[in-house]
Amino acid sequence: MSAMKVCVLFRPLNSKELSEFGDAVSVQGINSESFIIKDEKEQEFDFTFDRVFYQGSEQADIYEFLALPIVQGALEAINGTIITYGQTGAGKTYSMEGPSIVDCESKKKGLLQRVVDGLFEAIMNSEKPSKYTIKLSMVAVSNSAEALQSLSSGIANRAVGETRILRLFLTKFGKLILVDLAGSEKVEKTGAEGKILEEAKTINQSLTALGKVINAMTSSTQGKPTHIPYRDSKLTRILQDALGGCSQTALLCCCSPSPSNSSESLSTLRFGARAKHIKASVHVSCKEDIDNIKDATVYPNVDESRERILAKLRERMTAEDVQLLEKLLVLEGIFFDPNSVDEIEEAYEDVTSRTISSLHKAVEELNTGVEKMRRENAALKTSLKASEEFYQHQLERRSLCLIL
Ligand SMILES: Nc1ncnc2c1ncn2[C@@H]1O[C@H](COP(=O)(O)OP(=O)(O)OP(=O)(O)O)[C@@H](O)[C@H]1O
Questions:
Q1: Is 260 helix (H, G, I), strand (E, B) or coil?
Q2: Rounded to an integer, what distance in angstroms lies between the CA atom of residue 259 and that of residue 21?
Q3: For residues 29 and 343, what is the distance between their CA atoms, to the nearest angstrom?
Q4: Coil, strand, or helix at residue 390?
Q5: Which protein family is it in (predicted)?
Q6: Which of 32, 42, 175, 265 is 20 to 30 Å from 76 by CA-CA measure?
Q7: Gap between the terminal Cα atoms of the chain
Q8: Which atom of ligand 1 is nearest to the CA of 183?
Q9: Which helix (H) or strand (E) holds 99?
């Protein structure tokens, strides 16, 4: 089984598509996993995914297949990520949030509401609900309604068109990330100008970076470690855990079934097909990590959490290096929440990369210095040789005079 669960959703035809093409569709279902799609030239392409949700599918079915195992995993300390991908208007936000986060008919609730409800329900039904704390980016929330209200107001404050990333942290347990990616269509098709064009370009850059990461992860390397360019964009950095770490990830590729959008749908499906090939082997270390987390004792206060993080760093570095790193973090003005292992790791990564680049700079300077000294040395040798020849010549002349 692939490490990433990849599903496809075909939303219902919208009124524009219906008026232009009637009820014509480019998709022909084979079964719940496979279908055929025709491009503009009527060429057929067949695809198979973990599950295909055709027009008229229930939001509850998508949640149960795609997200429920991730919610259950979060309670078992496995990080989870759910991503919706596809062109503008393909149904990403509808799948994630339904028509509205709060005040939503229960049948139409999206993945977000169902994940939050599912999480609180599982916690309330657990033997010891008090051992769980849920944080929404860093704000503690105590029930589903409070969480959804905060998410709803947070979402209302975001610009339309950008990628929305929602993070839910279960302190001491898993972290859940829900990502509603920005539209994946080509910039030209949006007809964007000015500020919107600039925004579209940034979106394209982060989607390109995501594509590059997935390509790097799925390229055959014949046993050689491949460089995965996670740091190329904020999006791929945030998704680093989801794509390469100890995590369960689900990707919902949202498509229009209309022939008018077949080329964009095909590009979304090809992206999904590529993501499906991310090897399960990148998750091999997961089991051990999860067992370690499960076995770990509960750390009730900040000092103990900090100690746990430092202990983790000590495993990789000498005590002296850890002390230096602590000092460096303060000097560099990198502040972090001592409760969050992720943040300290990010800070650690930042310091490491900065240290590496200063080392690179120092090596470059040294090389320049060495080169300069080499040139000076060569020049000295040449002038020494010239002096030797001069004196030799003088000596020979004097000897000649003496003989004469
Ligand atoms: N499964 C669905 N059932 C009914 N209506 C849907 C469904 N999916 C999408 N729609 C409708 O299609 C329209 C566009 O959907 P949506 O806003 O989710 O697109 P999107 O992919 O998030 O676009 P953008 O990238 O612009 O955010 C909305 O009016 C939404 O109500």
A1: helix
A2: 8
A3: 44
A4: helix
A5: Belongs to the TRAFAC class myosin-kinesin ATPase superfamily. Kinesin family.
A6: 32
A7: 100
A8: 25
A9: none
